[in-house]
Amino acid sequence: MSTHAFSPPQRTLMGPGPSDIHHRVLLAMAKPTIGHLDPLFIGMMEEIKSLLQMAFQTQNALTLPISSPGSSGMEACFVNLLEPGDKVIICQNGVFGGRMKENALRCGAKAIMVEDEWGKAIDLNKVEASLKQHPDAKALAFVHAETSTGVQSDARAIAGLAQKQGVMSIMDAVTSLAGTPVEIDEWGIDAVYSGTQKCLSCVPGLSPVSFNECAQSVISGRKTPVQSWFLDMNLVMGYWGSQSKRSYHHTAPVNSLYALHESLRMLEEEGLENAWSRHEQNHQALRAGLEVMGIQFVVDSADRLPQLNAVAIPEGVDEAQVRSTLLNDYDLEIGAGLGPMAGKIWRIGLMGYASRKRNVLFCLNSLESVLLGQGLSLDAGAAVKAALAVYQ
User: Where is the Aminotransferase class V domain (predicted)?
Assistant: First the structure.
């Protein structure tokens, strides 16, 4: 068999993830690999923990990156906090609430589902009613930013309902972290997980998590062993803890952690609130351009994710062909719909380093050209002009 060196093209990544990665982060990965127990590496680990506390807006001591993707962060929260027979209320308004259910069932827990229409925010009245109906629930789990639909739900209010009923809250912040406000301590979230490949604009393969003291006490007081050895926080903290002598747990992805360290340094340099504002401004510019083309959002304005824009396919347009042409002719990636939204929407990401003026204008211009090629009647150049008006 003959093989060749793999040379990927330079794409503009404006789908649901991964996002564009800044050259500083890519260069950080190319630094010399050192041992995962090297004193210098351990010093960097402490900085990563501190920087993640900044990103999550928390003082939680148990804040660290799991050495695998965001789905493992989800699993880490469930397997550490749930035991067989526990009852957990799970909010589902898209794909990832369903994945929470799968995790809960594999822990031997009972999942009580609170379901809302895809494209709508979580209904607080339904959540409150379910909490009252199941006073013996141990936890309430929900997705803050539903990547499959572009919806953001009211995390503060949901966490408040959990606190009122005395149950733990588990929050999915995979798409929201660093893109829109995530304030773990202010909101009273007990456990949260995210991913590095979205608004942190880091390489895929790491999952930042954070557990508060209440969650830590639940983990340390379990009656049964954590279902997963690799994700057992009691063991992982032997490596990520602050003690001078660290126990070997696994070989950490050293170079990927270099990349996370650099991406978090860049977030700190920009300022967290500035990053939130940047995502919002670019969203508004993209929105203005899309609406000039007659492309409508499927999510109410109050519940839209600025970093993940779900828009309806114009009538008569071959949506898969549009995505294919954008990818092959323009090296531009946007996302398709999932589940009941498959074939009905595009998901246009503006996450992290991908959330910049250049990308917004490039996307609008490219999409306009492809739609004109499919016979749609558009005012050429109007979309970019509308977006520029927002920036000006």
Answer: 36-337
Cβ neighbors of 300 (< 8 A, separation 6 or more) are 120, 121
Compute CA 207 distance to the chain's CA centroid, rounded to the nearest angstrom: 9
Nearest to 308 by CA among 273, 270, 280: 280
- The CATH class, in words, for 23-268 is alpha beta
The C-alpha atoms of residue 340 and residue 24 are separated, in whole angstroms, by: 39
The answer to whether the annotation marks 347 as part of a ligand binding site is yes
The tally of CA atoms less than 13 A away on the side-chain side of residue 360 is 32
271-391: CATH topology = Aspartate Aminotransferase, domain 1 (3.90.1150)
Q: Which candidate, 378, 346, 335, places its Cα nearest to that of 11?
A: 335
Residue whose C-alpha is closest to residue 87's, from 119, 44, 122, 135: 135
Pairwise CA distance, residues 231 & 63, whole Å: 14
Q: What is the pLDDT of residues 29-39, one digit of tens each?
A: 999 999 999 99
CATH fold match for the domains 23-268 and 271-391: no
Q: In what order do the strands lie in the sheet with 308-312?
A: 308-312, 345-349, 335-336
> Are 159 and 131 spatial neighbours (Cβ–Cβ below 8 Å)?
no
Tell me the average pLDDT across 92-121. Answer: 97
Q: Is 192 helix (H, G, I), strand (E, B) or coil?
A: strand
- Which amino acid is present at 300? D
pTM of the predicted protein model: 0.97
Q: What is the DSSP string of 297-346?
A: BSS-GGGBBTTEEEEEPPTT--HHHHHHHHHHHH-EE-EEP-GGGTTTEE
Given a cut of 80, is residue 136 above it in pLDDT? yes
Amino acid at 339: G
- What residues does 252 pair with on adjacent strands? none
Query: Shortest CA distance to 286 belongs to which of 202, 184, 388, 145?
Result: 388
CA–CA separation, 316 and 307 (whole Å)? 27
Phi/psi-derived region of residue 188, left when phi > 0, alpha when psi is between -120 and 50, beta in every other case? left
Q: Where are the domains of the chain?
A: 23-268, 271-391
- Alpha carbon distance 378, 338 (integer Å): 28
